[in-house]
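SAMPLE LOG
Freezer: B-3
Tube label: C17
Construct: single chain, 279 aa
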Amino acid sequence: MSGIFERVIEILIGGLDSETLADVSGLHLDFSVRSGEGIDTVATVSIFNLAESVLNKISTGGVIQVTAGHKSDNESREVFKGEITDVDPHPQGADTLYILTCTGATSNKFKVVSNVYDPSMSAFSIIEDLSKSIGMPIELDSETESASGLSNKQYAGGYTVYGSAMKTIRSICADVGLEVIVDDLSIRIFDSVKGDQSRILDINFESGLLKGLSLSKSSSNPGVPTYTCSSILFPEIRRGRRVHIDDGKMVGNFKVKTVEHKGSNYSNGFYSHMEVTEW
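STRUCTURE (predicted):
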C-alpha cells in the first residue's frame, strides 16, 4: 500500500507564443485547483525561484498545465490546463516565491459558430467538428452505446448551426438519449439513464480515502443533502463525475459537486477534498 502514495507532479508553463513549454517541476512548488457547479475553475500555483528566462515567457496571458498522480498506479493525469492571469513575486530572504493565479480553459465553451452540415454527416461527426471549434476533446462512456448512437444518427435535411456550439452539442446528444457534462478538460458524453458508468471511481480507506463522509455546512436542501470527504489526490475526480464511496458507515454512488485538488513536491499536501450529493 505504501507505494500508492508516491507522488508525481509536472507543471509546464509558457507564453502564448511559446513553441515549447518550460518544465518547472524540479523547483519547489505547490498547487491548488478548485472547480464546482456554477463557478469558474481557478488554480493557484506557487513556485520558488523561477528562472528569468521562464519569467520572460509568462506575463499575463501565458499558459499553464498541471499534471499529478501516483507513480505506482501510473495515474499521473492532467489536473488543470488554463491561462495565467497574475504573477505575484514574494521575496523571502535569498529566495523568491512566485504565486501564479490562473483560470481554467473554459471560455471557448461559450463560442458562437455558424456552420452548415451536409445530410451525409452523422451526428457524431457534427459533434466532433463542434468540439474542435471549442478546443476541447470528447470523452465517450465506453459502457454505453454513445458512439454507435451518434454515428447512426443523421439529419435528412442536413444540420444548420448558428449560435452556441456547446448548446448544439447538448441538443444533438439529447436527440439520442445522451447527457453531456463539461468541465475544464473535456466534453463527457454518456447515457442519461445509466449514468456515467465508465467514470465510477471506487474510494474507500484501502484505495486512499482519508476522511469519511460528513454532512456539509453548505447543505441547504434537506431533501438533497451535501456531504464532504477527502482522499489522496485523484486527478480523475472532477465536477459532475460519479464516485462510489465506502467509509465503513455510508456506502453508495455520489455526484461530485465541487472538488479541490492540492499538491506539493516538498510538503505533505497531496489530496482531493470534495463535496458530493447522492446520485
